[in-house]
Amino acid sequence: MIRRSVLVLLPALAALAGCAQLPGDEDDAEHSGGDPSTKDSGQVADAEATATPAAAPPETGPCAGKAEGALACEGEGVVRCTGAGRAPEAVKTCLDIEHCEAGACAPACPKGEVYVPATGPAGFTMGKNLSAYGFGNRKSGYHGKGRADLPHKVVLTKPFCMDQTEVTAGAMKKCVEEKGCKAPQRTDRWITYPDKPDYPVNLVDYPMSKYYCEQYGKRLPTEAQWEWAATGGDGRSWPWGEEEPTCEHTDFTQSILVSPGGDSGCHGGGPSKVGTHRKGDKIWPNGPIHDLAGNVWEWVIDSYVPYSGKDEVDPVHERANIGTRVVRGGGWNRSGRGILAAFRGGAIWTYKVPGLGFRCVRNAKERDAAATQR
C-alpha cells in the first residue's frame, strides 16, 4: 500500500511543478510578458520623449549676437538680421563717400573735405525775391529785368563732400606741376600764387577752376549744393547765422567800397589765409567749412540765369550759349550784403580778378556689387 501511494503522488507533484513560480517571478512576468520587440520599442519611445533637443549652431557672420530685426554691416552694405539659420536681408549699400558702421551708413569723406548730407524729401527754399536780373554799374542805372531769385523748393537727393577750405595757391601749384593745371598770371598786386601757399588761389577763371577739380575726381559745386552747404536750409543770412558780420567772422569790407579792386577788406586788401576767421564757419556734424562768406568769391558750375520759381530736384543749370557763370559767397572787397549766403553774383567765364577763387565738391556715387565687400 505504501509503495502504491508514492507512485500516485509523483504524477500530481509533477503537474504542480509545471505551474509553480519562484519568489519574484510575478514582477518579472509583468515586465517581460509579451513580444520582446514590443519591449524594445517602448524603451525607444521613452528615450525620445526625454531626450534634450540638439542646440542650434551659434550665429555667425554680421548678425552674430544680434536680435532678429536688428541692422548690421556686411562689408559696405546694411543688412537686417532674420534669425538663426537664415541669411540676412540686404537693406541698402552705402555710397562711395560713406562706410557702413553699426548698421548704418556713416560719412567717409577724405581728409580736408566735409560730409554734407542730402536735404531729405522736404528740401529747402532757395531765392529771396530780392535780386534784379541783369548787369550794370552804378552809373548806368540799369537795374535789370525781372527777378533773379524767385523762391522755390530744391531737393538734393545725395550727400556730397565739400572742400573744407577754398583751394589754396599751394594746392594749385602742385596741380600745375603734376597735373597740367594752368598757373595764374601775376597781373595784380593781390595775387596769391605762388608765394602765399596757405591763401586762396585767385585770378583764376571758370575753365581753370573746373579743370583743377576734375583732376582730383571732383567738380565745381552746383549753385544749390553751395547754398545748402552754406546754410543747411534754415534761411540764415550768413553761414554762421544772423549775427551781423565782423572781421572775426570773415574778411570783407565793412564800409563803402573804395573800388571793386581797391584797398579794402579787413586787412587792408587782398584775401586772408584760409580758415583764419573761424567764427564765421558753417558747422556740420562732420566738421566745419571755412570762408563760405567773404575772402574770395567762388565759382559754381551753373550758368547765371534767373530762377524759374518751380520746385527742382538736383538742379544744374548749364547753358552753352551763356558765358556768364554764377559766383557765390562774396570776397574781401565786398560789403556785408555781397557776402549774404543767398546773394547771387555773376561773372563772365573768363573773368580773372584778385577777389575770385573756388572750391570743389566730391559727388557721391553708387558702389558696384563687388565693392560692397571689404
Automatic annotation (TrEMBL):
Q: Where is the Sulfatase-modifying factor enzyme-like domain?
A: 136-362
Signal sequence residues: 1-20
Tell me the keywords, alphabetical order.
Answer: Signal
Question: Is Signal there in the keyword field?
Answer: yes
Q: Which Pfam families match?
A: FGE-sulfatase
Q: Residues annotated as region Disordered?
A: 24-61
By its UniProt entry, which Gene3D superfamilies does this protein fall under? paralog of FGE (formylglycine-generating enzyme)
Its domain of life? Bacteria
Protein name, please? Answer: SUMF1/EgtB/PvdO family nonheme iron enzyme
Which species expresses this protein natively?
A: Polyangium mundeleinium
